[in-house]
Amino acid sequence: MENTYTLPTPEENILDPADDVELCLASTGQRFFNYLVDYAISYAIFRFVIFKLQVAFLAAIYQYVDSRAALYAISYLSVIAWYILFRTAFEGFTGGKTIAKLMNGTRAVNEDGTRITFKTALLRSLSRAVPFEAFSALGANPPHPWHDRWTKTYVIDEKESRLPID
């Protein structure tokens, strides 16, 4: 018996990482867990750290702003900015993970399974500021909310997925 091996043709790239990618989307329960935990952590940090800075800032600009409505709008926008900054920082610096995603083994990835960039993390966070965006995940299993659709990303279960080599 003779062992034979034929070399692949140039059209056949045996090291093509796209051939070995398999994305297993995170379940509804995993996504809901991520939402609750990340929101709770973001709120706790805001409430016990950022809120004091916000009150000091509003007190400093109070004399220059005549309207309570304007102060309320500034306060509301600062809360939204905090949440966008919090999510962008975590997903951007970790390549698609937040604290909750670290806890349950999920990650946000591009459609091809590659890590998301800081820009994509920012766009995902900005998309979440759209009113009623959180409800866009309801009714679908697995969920694919607007912030995933608009940025062409998925949240996957890392234990079940095969990702491309970075």
Tell me briefly what this model is.
This protein is mainly α and 166 residues long. The protein contains 5 helices and 2 strands, in the order H-H-H-E-H-H-E.
Structure description:
With 166 residues, the protein is mainly alpha-helical. The protein has helices at residues 28-61, 68-94, 99-104, 118-127, 146-151; strands at residues 106-110, 153-157. It has one domain (21-157). It is built from 5 helices and 2 strands. The longest helix has 34 residues, at 28-61. It is elongated and about 60 Å long. The two termini are 40 Å apart. The relative contact order is 0.18.
Query: N-to-C terminal Cα separation, in Å?
Result: 40 Å
Structural class: mainly alpha
- Biggest β-sheet strands, sense, barrel: 2 strands, antiparallel
Order of helices and strands: HHHEHHE
* Overall number of structural domains: 1
Task: Report the strand count.
Answer: 2
Strand percentage, roughly?
5-15%
Classify the helix fraction into a percent range: 40-55%
What's the gyration radius in Å?
22 Å
**What oligomeric state best describes the polypeptide chains here?**
single chain
How many helical stretches?
Answer: 5
What general form does the structure show? elongated
